[in-house]
Amino acid sequence: MTAPALSQALARFIERTRYEDLPQEVVSFTKLCVLDWLGSALAGADQPPIRMIRELAEEMGGAEQAALVTGGRTSALHAALVNGAASHVVELDDIHKASIIHAATVVIPAALAAAEWRGRSGRDLIAAIAIGYDVCFRIGEAVSPSHYRYWHNTATCGTFGAAAAAGKLLGLAEESLVHALGNAGTQAAGLWEFIEDGAMSKQLHTGKAAMNGLLAALLAEKGFTGPTRILEGGRGFFHAMSEEFDASRVTERLGETFKIRENSFKIHASCRHTHPAIDLALSLRADPANPLRPEQVRKIRVGGYRSVVAITDDPSPASVYAAKFSLQFCVALALVKGRAGLAEFTEQTLHDPAIRTLMERIEVKLDPEVDAAYPECWGTRMEVTLAGGDTLTVRTDYPKGDPENPVAAEELIGKFRLMTDHLPVGRRERHIEMVLQLEEAADLAQFWPEGSRI
Amino acid sequence: MTAPALSQALARFIERTRYEDLPQEVVSFTKLCVLDWLGSALAGADQPPIRMIRELAEEMGGAEQAALVTGGRTSALHAALVNGAASHVVELDDIHKASIIHAATVVIPAALAAAEWRGRSGRDLIAAIAIGYDVCFRIGEAVSPSHYRYWHNTATCGTFGAAAAAGKLLGLAEESLVHALGNAGTQAAGLWEFIEDGAMSKQLHTGKAAMNGLLAALLAEKGFTGPTRILEGGRGFFHAMSEEFDASRVTERLGETFKIRENSFKIHASCRHTHPAIDLALSLRADPANPLRPEQVRKIRVGGYRSVVAITDDPSPASVYAAKFSLQFCVALALVKGRAGLAEFTEQTLHDPAIRTLMERIEVKLDPEVDAAYPECWGTRMEVTLAGGDTLTVRTDYPKGDPENPVAAEELIGKFRLMTDHLPVGRRERHIEMVLQLEEAADLAQFWPEGSRI
Questions:
Q1: Is the pTM higher than 0.80?
Q2: For B118-148, what is each residue's pLDDT tens digit?
Q3: Which among B60, B189, B226 is the nearest to A194, CB-wise?
Q4: Which end of chain B is more exposed for a tag (fewer CB within 10 A), N or C?
Q5: Is ipTM strictly over 0.90?
Q6: For the residues of B143-187, what is the DSSP string, one character each?
Q7: CB-based contacts of A356: which residues, under 8 Å, 6+ apart?
Q8: Which of A189, A192, A196 sits opposite B188 (nearest CB)?
């Protein structure tokens, strides 16, 4: 007996998995993913690239099927496009290390648009999102790391996750889900070349991936066929788009474990490689016995893995964006301000003399022991020499928000409040309440408060 | 001085080329491309995959910006999607050998939607289409043949052509055109894997390519940025999506020659590899001195190049679709019916005893001389042994419709009439008249007769 085609195995998993099959902690975790996504989307809604995409969607017009985080309602496809773009622009959305996928920004907009349009329940949505994460994480793991050389995994692999989640919400049967996955894969796109210019394509990628996955599912619902072996087929996704791949990752323990729990959250509004050092700085500052104050610091030596040194050793960042990739800035910011959230990365902090003075005392270097544990552990060692000559040494193996160093729900709620502090307090708190009680929602067509406004 | 980036060179060409720069024969030829496209699109409009895509577009809704070949009007993006899908389903659309691109089905829907929405002139449309063909042919040539191993050139490379044509119609300046090309390339998709299942993805590819190219141009108009070296960049289209490439093909004689003239038209409704043999059969049948009649035939030996033998040697096709890939059927059909158009490939002809009897006398084999000239020449030698013992030998190097064996405008008009014989005669003839006088149209927003109906 030969193994079923990968799409078929995934389709069976998608069709058969019900909300009732999810362990309680998966349900709770998925709701936090939704909240975290919503925060990123609302925080990004007014950024220029998102404004442009929203304007275009408005000009195109469409039936009022789903809500936009930028306000108003539009067609399900346009909602997926705009919301998918909006949630990837402030760089605070979730990340899965093994597949290098930011799943929320692709899976959730597609799922939400389908759920709103078709009036599905909160439980349906939770199950669909957990399934969508699972599907794209598996495909991303199968093609990692070689696929990532050229391709933006979040967009390419994410398209499958969007189709899986949307297909689940449409109630597609196994055969139709195979076609949906097939036509998701044959639309998969998103090259890294844009990064050379810092171009806006990054948000187009995620918006389009959400839209394309939803499109594949909606067409499959009508009987539109696609390739049945899009992953492993001779002219399919694996062979065409990755130098090496491990197909077994797609089905390994499929249905036994929910990989959404492997998801990491970003608490600090900077490059992920700066996070372990920020965590250490904050822990020293918050030490109840001996809280570290900036003026006590004579020297800080930060020992990181290779990417920390290669990407974040910048003693003199020239812009707020560059500051997010400066370990010196991030550590000094954390020690001076006690936070490194969206609100802390500003022109003001960039030129704050207290921060700049402290930055001069911070040195970044490779720590061979920390590096040996990479990439399984994204760790950092920090050695602080005090003015009096004493030395404090601390170390972490995982940035806060990794599954091994989980962030508490309260902290994610706090992050959400910070990301949405431009909203009226009442609406912000109602969002938190709604998302954390998502399983109680009977009909998502009526989900968003205040009519058409998220 | 280094050469400008490829996108910049193309953008400059797109911006600077005006209708007035086109030689008269390019204008005439482009109009024939439009007519041929329209015939394919109208002939395919009611096919199941197109019906499904159209239904979905209807459900999504949209402003009435452009006409659908399936009837009615919708948003520019949806029009590009539906019309792009419709024009690739009856397999009679044009083909460019060197780039392996069917340009019409991607470039024209995107251009037409932009032109209708913005009320551009017929001259603007003609120039944009000629430019769009040029751009995608060049990119396709640069990545041929290796790209074609996995990728459907028409969709992937076609996306650039759609963006180029739409960008021209939007009046984008060089810098914006660079961004449009960048975001076209980063959306490029379409894997051949669907062919294993004969899935409907083929039409999704062309519809999406038209839509994605138009989307890239519309976003660029708003200032949305993209990668500036999408073709040759280290993580761009060439490196990611083709094993080998020749970047010089992109700019070789750019602006000096209009590659749209290299386009081939399909006259017969079958696999292109059967066309030279059909041409020969029709010429023997139409010989004014000695018209060949089926009952005179004792034996026909068809000598082809390798693909003729590999793909079209099928003495007993089981379906109408399979019959289009059976050289025995195609040659017998041509001799019995005197035509091999859309109307001739039917269940009736498939089981016609006269055709079946003749098929038994037809043999397909490799002709080393013909094969040696392939792929520059798609030739065939045919040797007919008559009942009386005499032998007729004929040979062609290029199927009818290749630039080396051009089809007359009158023949393409005849093909259009056959493809649209389900339409009222008045509408059909008006279409012909309108397209052949396209340069007279002042405002394409008002182009289609009978209001919203193509």
A1: yes
A2: 999 999 999 999 999 999 999 999 999 899 9
A3: B226
A4: N
A5: yes
A6: HTTGGGGTB-HHHHHHHHHHHHHHHHHTT--HHHHHHHHHHHHTT
A7: A332
A8: A189
